[in-house]
């Protein structure tokens, strides 16, 4: 049975699979922490591949700075998360540039094992000319340029509930997880929304408050009225 989510993901996948920039298509799946970015990125990758276009998913988890850098402004620092979490320079050099116009198409899938906090030196992968690379992460429009951006629009209170339940064990229980979201993750996300305005800049915007019934607000140049 085709679900409402399948229909929305299918429309986005059709849009992305039809794009032919002359090099691998570099797609960001952006949004606040716990908005549902990773799940949507994986689903879109599968849907695009199902349309006969080579597609692969990459997570920005593999392009974090080491823990000593990420936490140098304090474990709960929102400014630290915003400024120090990701190694955007390495990501641009090792992924976006090689897959862009005139690039070698040799790209790295990760440079760090996040849980082990250890560097990873794996051989590069060779992308086919028509690859769709789908990347999920936070703050993706702050320093990086993409061919397409899917913004996963989720209210903070909904994302906080999802995130604290998801990360309670990792962060030391529900109370500590809630504190981490309030002080670090979502405080940094609010700064990102204020400074960058990522939803307005995205080529695709999906209201993901109800994961079973997402609403497509923008697709390419098409602005859909709020329902």
The chain-level mean pLDDT equals 95
* Percentage beta strand: 15-25%
Spatial order of the strands in the main sheet? 2-7-1-8-9-10-11
Kindly provide the radius of gyration, computed on alpha-carbon positions and rounded to a whole number of angstroms. Answer: 17 Å
Please provide the ordered H/E string of secondary-structure elements. Answer: HEHEHHHEEEEEEHHHEEE
Would you identify the CATH architecture?
3-Layer(aba) Sandwich
State the shape. globular
Number of strands: 11
Largest beta-sheet characterization: 7 strands, mixed
Stretches where pLDDT falls below 50 for ≥5 residues?
none
CA distance, first residue to last residue: 24 Å
- Portion of residues within helices: 40-55%
- The CATH topology label is Rossmann fold
The CATH fourth-level homologous superfamily = P-loop containing nucleotide triphosphate hydrolases
Secondary-structure content class? alpha/beta
In total, the number of domains comes to 1
CATH class: Alpha Beta
State the helix count: 8
